[in-house]
Input
Amino acid sequence: MSEISFNPFDPEFRKDPHPFYDRLRTDQPVHRTPIGFVVLTRYDDVVNTLRNNDFSRDIELNANLPETPTRKFKRENIRSKSILNLDPPDHTRLRRLVSKSFTPSAIERLRPRIQELVDASLANAKRTGEIELVEELAFPVPFLVISDLLAMPTDRGDELREWSQIITATLEPTTGVEDLERGEVAIGKMRPYLEEIIQHRRQHMGDDMLSSLIAVEEQGEKLNNDELMSFVILLYIAGHETTVNLIGNSVHALLSHPEQLAIMRRESCTANMVDELLRYNGPVQHTIRTSLVDVDLEVEGSKITIEKGALVLASLAAANHDASVFSNPHNLDFSRTNSNRHVAFSAGVHYCLGASLAKLETEIAVGTLVREFKNIEIVGEPEWRDRLTIRGAVKLNLTVS
Ligand code: HEM
Output
């Protein structure tokens, strides 16, 4: 048998990582890459790692990595930490402060507004019979919803989108100093713009999420200005860069599985179907942690130790296709009864705060597209993003009637 390796640069891997993940999961579920990080592909290992406080999300502080120009740059230049990189108890405090705005009932109240935005986004396609799905539906809906929620003006949408894309590129495992520098320039442009909006909102509080974040006060604690800014930037980026890919991936998955599309037409799009679409091809491929102590994992009766300070890449995509949890995992199957066990939104303390919102947006966007058009066909080949962390289409041209 040939040596297996996790090589995210292999064009075959980029096209479809699942054959590689399947082999890793079977032959080397705790896989050490030549550059020293540990790749986990079994569902249980991924979930247990994400739920285990012996693993930290604060890589810069806790990982035992060789000094590189990238690390030096991060340490010297990247000032404030976002909620995403904090460990408890700092994470717990921040999360408690912000989670009130994201309760499922608060999100469900957005349903009519999301429907209105989806209907407006599809109006042109109804007239012309054509739609470029990403530009006309998958991007504008989450972007306008998050702008609405934060009561942000949308007049500089193009710039915000560009900055967000540059900042998201810094989350790639292959990030180098140049990407980080570009990211810092983008943050440097985004900050004063958002600062102005936050200042204005402080003086004119409304019933939007930004006002409640400003006002939030629990046990005498407030979000300080730096935390508020990092959080708003994270929300904006999550609004731009994740749901857009879920909507695109979902439509592509449905068009490649006409029998499942037929079920959705018959029964309309449900939350369970969105869970199955997230399991099948959720946009976030992996996340990282570092171990705070030596941790033992069991593989076929033997112990494999993940040493303190090791960098661990937990593959959410591989876990979601683990046949020991999801039967026939490479099939999109709306009759599955356990789709909601997927880890497309991660697990443990960092479980995606925007999960209910992303699911509702996708349910309405995909459900309305399928309801409005009896015929939907892909024109040409979709164009895919050249990213490792987030998978999704950049362009998906469709004819609809
Ligand atoms: C399909 C869409 C989305 C996917 C697949 C997704 C995925 C994820 C994942 C995997 C994490 C955790 C990463 C980790 O464990 O290291 C995360 C965290 C987070 N997400 Fe999402 N996300 C989506 C949409 C959104 C939206 C729309 C928002 C907000 C408007 C949002 C806000 C956040 C926040 C604030 C965190 C950090 C939570 C914490 O650290 O406690 N996400 N997301």
Remarks:
- The first strand starts at residue 30 and ends at 32.
- Residues 11-400 form a domain with the Cytochrome p450 fold (CATH 1.10.630.10).
